[in-house]
Write a structure and sequence with these properties.
- The protein is mostly helical.
- Among the domains are: 9-43; 100-160, no CATH class.
- 46% of the residues lie in helices and 0% in strands.
- It is built from three helices and no strands.
- It has helices at 9-22, 26-43, 101-142.
- It is elongated and about 140 Å long.
- 0% of the residues are buried.
């Protein structure tokens, strides 16, 4: 089957000048150009020496199937129950207290005496503790770490 190609004058002149410059036949250039252009159109842009390889591709197709399900509607009955809460409320009521000045003074004096007595006892105990600590230190300083044995014994004169 023969196919005719209609070119404009400018396109025809370019084709002829290209073929003359490169010493090519016009029919071969047209056929080669058609073939490469058609392959690009059909397969997309490929490298020049690449061959088209057809492959089988397996695809997993998921198909959703709707299964009718019967929905059972339940009637929910809501009952409202009245709840009574007992709340304990604490209210402060100011109360007038009548205190005699003499009772306050006697209590205050008794507290001051007790406080004075406790402070003096505390000071005495601190003095006693310091004295005991000093005697312990004296004993530790005077104590020697060696023991002396009789000359007739087998042991050395000093153990430590």
């Amino acid at each position: 089957m023969e196919v005719k190609l209609n070119l404009s004058n400018a396109e025809h002149k370019e084709l002829i000048s290209y073929c003359n410059l490169n010493d090519l036949l016009v029919s071969e250039v047209v056929k080669k150009s058609f073939t490469s252009g058609f392959n690009i159109e059909r397969y997309g842009l490929l490298s020049e020496g690449a061959k088209v390889v057809e492959k089988e591709v397996e695809k997993i197709v998921e198909k959703r199937v709707e299964i009718p399900v019967e929905v059972i509607k339940e009637v929910v009955k809501i009952e409202y129950v009245e709840v009574i809460k007992e709340v304990e409320k604490i209210v402060e009521v100011p109360v007038e207290v009548m205190v005699e000045k003499e009772q306050d003074n006697t209590k205050l004096k008794a507290l001051e005496q007790t406080l004075h007595k406790l402070k003096s006892e505390n000071i005495d105990k601190d003095k006693k503790i310091k004295e005991l600590e000093q005697t312990i230190n004296n004993i530790q300083v005077n104590q020697t770490n060696s023991a002396t044995y009789l000359r007739g014994s087998n042991l050395n004169d000093k153990l430590f």
